[in-house]
Amino acid sequence: MGKKQRDTKVMNNGARRGRLAWAWSLLAVATAICVSVGACALLLPDRAPALLGSAGETTTAPASVQEYSGSQQVTVVPTISTERNLLGNANGTVTADWSADGLASGKGAYKVNDRVVVALNTATPLYRDLKTGDKGDDVLALNNELSRLGYNSVAGSDTYWWATSDGWRQLMNDNGNPSDGTLALADTMWIPENAVAVDEWTATTGSMVTGGTAIGKIPGALTKLTVKNGAAVGQDRTISMYGVNGILPADSTEITDAEFLRNVSANETFQSMDMQTKKAGLDATVALKEPLQVLRVPAGAVFGIDGSSGCIVPKSHNASNTPVKVTIVGSELGVSLVQTQDADVSAIANVEIGSGLNGLVCK
């Protein structure tokens, strides 16, 4: 290699080393800057930019008046009594049967050996033959039922008087039986209500019956409907199910009105359901009998809630933050519907919300 080539190689190596040193210097400076910035960031106070600062608290919200019907879909759970056996007292051949439409007190149920057996709803079941002069709770029950049916008797008396005998004779004659006023047990059949439906009836025309044996059953009766998870309100409400309308009494979640229950029981939809389906609950609609004028406020405006009672703070003409007692009658998403106890709802345009309610007492 000549001298000129050696000199050129030395120069190239020197230039390369110079560029490398310069690169390392730039890297060192950049690193120092980053470290300084990081340190400064750690030392700066933790504060958000002014544009991102939190907004001021909202302390009032609008309120409005609306009509409230309280209409809502509910589930009602039925209470159904246990089925009961119907016992006959007559022996012989059934010569007529009128049980298809149910049994009614004072009316013929069936005929045995061509004599009518009359259904009777007495407070005490009849268990013996009776004649003038007999006494007992069964006689008292007979006197009262004869009186209710419109026949001669001595209501409230436990004695089988001549009037009782006359009333019984009238009842027998009206049903086609000759009678001298003496009561024969075989002419009667006890039923637990004024009118009952029957099931599994065996005293059909042509069959043989024996006194003291079951000839049919009373299916379990609907005795009560209870609103599932319902809350009582201080007013009567209407209830509607299967086209049957009734009243849900004030301060109650139960319906025991016999006529309403009877009409529900007679509905084809109800009758077509099995017992398990019925016990799971039935659909119904309830609504206030008379709509209310209520105040619509944010749910957060009601404080000191105890059951359906609470308080709000009206802001329209109330600068002193005085709580007003209210009754919560309904709710929607994020909203409470209330009635005031001592204030005109139409005069309330705004209510207090937020921290302004802290420390206030509802009483």
UniProtKB/TrEMBL annotation:
Name the UniProt record assigns to this protein = Peptidoglycan-binding domain 1 protein
For this UniProt record, the keywords arranged alphabetically read as follows: Membrane, Transmembrane, Transmembrane helix
Question: Where do the TM regions start and end?
Answer: 21-44
